[in-house]
Structures are given as C-alpha cells and as structure tokens.
C-alpha cells in the first residue's frame, strides 16, 4: 500500500468555510490539501492541473463571468475528464433535487457540512478507497424519494446479490462484505459484476443509486 498522502482540492465559494475545511483536513496525517477553488470552473481547472485523488465539492458556487458552473456541473466535468479523481460533495444543501443531481453527475458521496469532523475525514478516506459515502440523512431522503413514486419494473437481483449491494450501500469494502457474508473476496467481486451487468452500470455508486431509484433497496 502506498504511503503517499491523499491529495485533495477543496472547492467552496466562501473563503472562511474553505479555509476551515482545509484546516480540518490538515489535521489528518494522511491527507494533503493541494489546492483551493472558489468556483466550479476553478475547481475543474485545478483538478485538471493537479490531478488530485479527490475534490471536496460544494454545490452552489457561482462564477464571476461566463456560464455558471455549479458543483454538480463541475463534478460531471471532473469525473468525465479525470476518471481516477473522485468527488465528494460537502454542502449545506440537502434537497432531493440537489442530492440526485450531484449523484447523477458522478459524485462518489454526499456529506453535510454539519457532519462531525471525524465523519468528514473518514468520508474522504472511504471515497478515495473506492467506497460510496452518504450521510444517514441523505440516504434516508433517497430511500423516501424513490419509494414515494411508482418504481419502474427493474432487473431481478438474487437474494445474495441484494445482500452484497445493501452492504455496499452501507459503505462496506469488498473485504468487509466477504467477512460478514462468510464468502471470499473473489465471490463478492463476482456478485458485483453480475449486479453491474443486470443494472447496466459500471461502478458501485451508480449501482446503489439506481437500485434505490428502482426500489430494490
């Protein structure tokens, strides 16, 4: 395992908030803030320049000139341009539309600024480690939103595939899932491959969000 620190760009249009987030992350020995952005467009430019491991992104960030690039639009640009860079939303906004827009854009997680400091730092580590991170309140909103409407007919997942996907949604890694279900990591990966194929997705985050949309979770 590499000993290199997790390289993070912090994107927030409020200087005091941005500084506070950067100071918080600097408390962790394994996290390094390599850049700060005050707008969505600046976040995209910095990400392309620095190729960080993660961009910690606010959602509502107007720009001084040119077309507005909010956090969701910036997230979509970063994810499409830099597949190795993950985006974790950290914002005060928790409306259904904000949440769905950010996740549809490719964000790997969604946390609120009111979250405990330890949860934010843990979220950074988890997302860079390939996990999906959703604040409990956000996960509950997604479930409620998807279950209120008539869920469209979706693919059938086996009971074991659903077990694996539920643990993925809870933020567990493949080794953790294997341990809890008493199966090998290779078997976990096989189940996930089948889940991805049935749902027509290519990553864990989209598998969870689509499963919620379809009422499978």
Automatic annotation (TrEMBL):
SMART domains (UniProt xref): HTH_LUXR (SM00421), REC (SM00448)
Domain Response regulatory stretches: 7-128
GO molecular function per UniProt: DNA binding
Modification 4-aspartylphosphate, positions: 58
Record organism: Mycetocola zhujimingii
Keyword Transcription: yes
Protein name in the entry: DNA-binding response regulator
Annotated GO biological process: phosphorelay signal transduction system; regulation of DNA-templated transcription
Domain of life: Bacteria
CDD domains: LuxR_C_like, REC_NarL-like
Keywords on record: DNA-binding, Phosphoprotein, Transcription, Transcription regulation
Stretches assigned to the HTH luxR-type domain: 150-215
Lineage of producing organism: Bacteria, Bacillati, Actinomycetota, Actinomycetes, Micrococcales
